[in-house]
Amino acid sequence: MKKLGFSLSPGMLLGRPESILGAAVHARFGNTRELLKELKARGVSSIEIRNLPQSAREDLGARLVETVWQAGLEVSVHGGADTEGEGGSREFSEVYPPVKELIKYSAAHQKDIIMVIHAYTGDQDKVEELKERSVSLLRSWASLAESGEVPLRFALELTRRRVGKGDPAAGVEDLLGMVREVNSPYVGITWDMGHYYANVLKAGSSLQNPVGLVLPARGFLEHTVHTHIHGIGAKGTHGPLGPRESLPLEEYVEALREVEYQGIYNLELDFRRFPDDEDPVEHIFGALARLDQSLAGC
Question: Where is 254: in which H helix or E strand?
């Protein structure tokens, strides 16, 4: 069964868009309630709160979750570890206050919760240390979720390779290795298709070259529990799903279908990466239509 998701920032959900094009999207619908209503009408069943870090206030997290639930939609979270230590906490909601309400009342609204997490990043010569810290964090959080019987799954995100930046999650095999090292049913992978495709293109291939359609290892696909979907355009990643060369979406969806993926197909678009002289709402609708078409039969 297909499940469409859509990422929205806290600012968009609270009626305070962070960009000119985001404001144009919000103005088109008049308020957040109507925006969420339209997304739901076009097949979206889940909203990913984009950028809700560990240090965010508990009341902010509660407002965002309530806004989405009131629209009859489920919630996933794009989180971030920015607070060191657990302080002897026995519950995950103590470690991560902004998701306290989500965890407390989730049973009445959804079956489980996905939290997208990035690995620690830093200097290029410290990748091994960053990997060890990331694995340790995920083990600790998974243990808290398991002991509290919280229906929470952490999804470590595949990221884009950047020159001079140490990131243990910027490669398929490295990311898969970390998830296997954690070895917990509470930890899986977020396949960011746009990041993956950007890495493939950077390696020197294209859609005109069959290498451009190379797929991740089957083990990576089997550990995937969430997705981020966006196109590559003139402004980089997180752009609209335009022509097919923006992302070989159909092939990626088929790869997930072959391993019986049951998670969310989540569009992660950044309105700042949209063309300045085109209607951003039409790009949103176009992306949803292409994704829905690619999922026919799922």
Answer: helix 249-258
